Protein: Haloacid dehalogenase-like hydrolase domain-containing protein
Amino acid sequence: MANLTTNAKARLRGVVFDMDGTLTVPVIDFAAMYRTVLGEDEYKRIKAESPTGIDILHHIESWSPDKQQKAYEIIADYEQQGIDKLQIMPGAVELCSFLDSKKIKRGLITRNVKKAIDIFHQRFGVIFSPALGREFRPYKPNPDPLLHICSAWDIQPNEVIMVGDSLKDDIACGKGAGAFTCLLDETGRYGPDDFSVSGLHPDFKVDSLSKIQNILETNFDLIP
Structure:
């Protein structure tokens, strides 16, 4: 990931976060969810055809209403399990306090439901605004949610950075909107081949939220 300090620092006025696996500790077994929704054979076929990951919400949009309803019920059950075990990611509170000290805006975009956002806000007292769930259409990786937040803030996309743990959802959303992007990769899941295959190259890559403050201070003028 290139350091941006070779040129004049870009102005940064807002940070938009993903929620599951970024602001919260990952607890949802997405592979098990996909297998349950799709069936084992269909899961294996789609996984083989989608090296960057399965977009389950997009996939089921073409199903019949009855089949869609059953799929959404399965997804809701897994998401409820995630809510029951909800933990804030280490470093999230400190990073948000730093952003607050600099008066940098912070928003949230998730493919989870608004109920999960509300519980996150209530449980941890760290508020993001705007905070968009998948009720906002189209959802990530479409850039529209991020562009909506930029419009609500009256900020240009190139004055914002998108932070998330999904290359195909978060980085694609950020790149599509024209924002800076930071990939959170705690386990070393992504490598150069993933970036080449997807054509998505995050501006920064970190293995912990605690490392983002230094990236922001080093590479940007933090001017609200």
The longest strand covers residues 105-109. The radius of gyration is 17 Å. The chain has ten helices and eight strands. The mean pLDDT is 92.
